């Protein structure tokens, strides 16, 4: 079909709006009006379909503008609903034990704390990482000791995430890497220890060395985790020698029991011995102090007596002599006789002292005190008669006290 057909009253059907007659301005104007009318017809038909109305060719300008306004409002409402849904989908909550690692277009952006937060959907991604829970990795297996024995060892490590960024991005699988590092550290320490030490005495030492080696191994990798503790769970010998090692362990326990009993006895006796030693030391100190004070007192007394002795030597000498003899003879069994007297007392001192100690009267043994004449005594002694016998029956010392 041709664009320009005859019989159309000089109007062409040029889609570009140019006519055969008239200038370009008239043709373009008519083309623009025609294009706007067609666009209005298109919107009117679309609004009628959406509104359930059947459109016709009639109608004024109001009928053409109302569908266009309705369609514009619908688009704005739809866009607002999309924005609200997008904004609402950005709210999220981080638990108290977690920290959120933010990825913006796949790149690390920061860390958010626990609580309610917001992120732009399709732009940011948040990965929660638990930083409070104590995690655990274990290893076990048959291991060779330094004395070429094979034992089965079981160990586990307790750790916690302290840096979420390093935990997620420094190592591909930090948990598996930690388990492999633990297995390597355990085998290295067991390989340097004897079998008996691993099974009995050096378990605590092996655990400490393993933890130190494990921390030194994972430090360069910056895994973002902190090792809390390494537990030495079990160490067993092979089944073929298990009975012999059970006997060794039983003997070791008996030894420890005996040592504990010895320590208990030492703890019981040692304080008592220390107390007695301290008592003796204090008594010696007290005796030392008493002797020193007594000596100082005697020195002071002598210093006071010296001027008196210089003033009256004879009187002072006599008084000192009497005081000294009184002090010396007060605690001895002696018979005191006076030279100026013509008689002497012969006393059974041991029997008298024994009677005083028993609080009873002295028995009558025929050795009662007798007054004897010294002259007679001397005569009798020369003849070896009765006085000599009486003297043999007296068990005491006779001291003649007097001054010439």
Topology of helices and strands:
Elements lengths: L23 H28 L9 H28 L2 E4 L3 E7 L2 E6 L2 E4 L5 E7 L4 E10 L5 E12 L2 H6 L4 H18 L3 H7 L1 H16 L6 E12 L5 H70 L1 H17 L4 E5 L5 E2 L3 H9 L13 E2 L1 H10 L2 H8 L3 E5 L3
Parallel strand pairs: 9-12
Antiparallel strand pairs: 1-4, 2-3, 2-5, 6-7, 7-8, 10-11
Helix pairs in contact: 1-2, 4-6, 7-8
3D structure, described in words:
By secondary structure, the chain is of the alpha+beta class. Among the domains are: 88-129, no CATH class; 133-237, Band 7 domain (Tetrahydropterin Synthase, Chain A), CATH 3.30.479.30; 244-326, no CATH class. 54% of the residues lie in helices and 19% in strands. It has eleven helices and twelve strands. The strands form five sheets. It has a three-stranded antiparallel β-sheet with strand order 3-2-5, with no helix packed on it. It has a three-stranded antiparallel β-sheet with strand order 6-7-8. The chain is elongated and about 180 Å long. One of its GO terms (biological process) is proteolysis. HflC and HflK could encode or regulate a protease. HflC and HflK may interact to form a multimeric complex. The chain crosses the membrane at residues 74-94. It is found in: Membrane.
